[in-house]
Amino acid sequence: MQIHNAAEWEFVKFISTQLYNKTMRTKGDALVNKIEDSITKINSLISISYMENDYSEMVIAIGGDLEKFLKGTVLNIANKKFYDLIEELKNHGIAQSYVDFLHDFRLCYNGYKHNPIYTRTIFEVKTYFINIKGAVNEIIANSIGLVSQPYQSRSKRTVWFAGWDDYVGGMTECGVFIPDYDIDMPIEIDHFNLHFRGWNAIVEKFTGSNELFMGKEHVSARAFNFWKFESDFVNAGAFVGDVSEFVRELCKHIAKNENDLIPFLKRNHDSYSVYCSAVFSIFDVLREDSWTSQQNLKDEILLRMAYDYGIDLNSPHLAIIDYFDYVTVTLYRDQLKNTNEILWLDEANYSAKKIGEISQKLSIGFDRNYNILTKIK
């Protein structure tokens, strides 16, 4: 079936919904998933040439996630240092061996973060990751704090997906786009530089789960023809499913040599990619409706940006979450928890539909149905 407009996607959405995996992750699972992703990346590095900063950056990223996890989700203690948080676990039944694993990782994290001459082999770092995975699983098994609380209310949306080979860099550049049948150049909301095997891995995984539909019949003819005439075009299609899962899987395949790119070509340095991850994250957090305070809401958004949308906690653009109006979100909490969609609008439609704002500076608001509105760049 050739699809020409948005309405015809309803049938595709219905069919894919029947096959959609609705397994709910917990907050503990979310951190374990990210640790597993890091182990996978390290295994990939071991098979090729690498620099120490290729894996030290993972330690710094996961170290920040782990500290926030212990401080918020596990212990709900805001004013203790990383060392004290780990020690506190002994009062909750965690064995000394697991506490030692966490301290080993903490020391590695602090070393890479604060000591420019600190060094560890990739095999030592891999062991640290394997050990903290075991420690986090032990925390989960003991049901400490909110670790077993559902982490993600999975939401479905349709996006377009396209890729281009970069033969010189040995990467495939790909983008995620807002569907629009009326323009040649759909708005790109995120982009990735995948390693040379990444494209096929993504396509095989999500076509196999009936969430990704590749080929020109699944996007507008105008967009496909525009993309096709760009050099080294690979293919395009439509993804119908949980975009956070799609993005998280894409992040697993980011090319190691992306670090060789000039900064503005890296995803973490792309302000709009970080912005979009923040929009997706607040949408998910509002729907889940489990936050306990304005600070906890902010922490949940930040954690989702890291866990689900692959934004490194060292990104220079993370300060954007300080621009959310957490007071307004709190006032409209009962209404916003029922939000059903994110609408990406031009300036005129954004202004016309908006009845309230989550962030004036970032142009994120909500309409009378409490759908999230955001102004496209």
- Main sheet: strands, sense, barrel: 5 strands, antiparallel
In spatial order, strands of the major sheet run: 3-2-1-5-4
H/I helix tally:
14
Number of structural domains: 3
Strand % is: 5-15%
Approximate helicity band: 40-55%
* Element string (H = helix, E = strand): HHHHHHEEEHEHEHHHHHEHEEE
Briefly characterize the structure:
Helix content is 47%, strand content 14%. It is an alpha+beta fold and 377 residues long.
What does this structure look like?
The protein is an alpha+beta fold and 377 residues long. It has three domains: 6-14 and 152-261, no CATH class; 27-141; 274-375, no CATH class. It has helices spanning 9-18, 27-46, 52-74, 82-88, 96-114, 122-141, 198-208, 221-228, 243-252, 271-288, 294-307, 326-331, 333-336, 347-353, and strands at 157-166, 171-177, 188-195, 212-214, 233-241, 342-345, 356-359, 364-366, 372-375. The strands form two sheets. It has a five-stranded antiparallel sheet with strand order 3-2-1-5-4, with helices on both faces. A four-stranded mixed sheet has the order 6-9-8-7. The longest helix has 23 residues, at 52-74. The two termini are 33 Å apart. Mean pLDDT is 85; it is low at 11-23 and 261-265.
Task: Summarize the SSE layout with pairings.
Elements: H1 9-18, H2 27-46, H3 52-74, H4 82-88, H5 96-114, H6 122-141, E1 157-166, E2 171-177, E3 188-195, H7 198-208, E4 212-214, H8 221-228, E5 233-241, H9 243-252, H10 271-288, H11 294-307, H12 326-331, H13 333-336, E6 342-345, H14 347-353, E7 356-359, E8 364-366, E9 372-375
Parallel strand pairs: 6-9
Antiparallel strand pairs: 1-2, 1-5, 2-3, 4-5, 7-8, 8-9
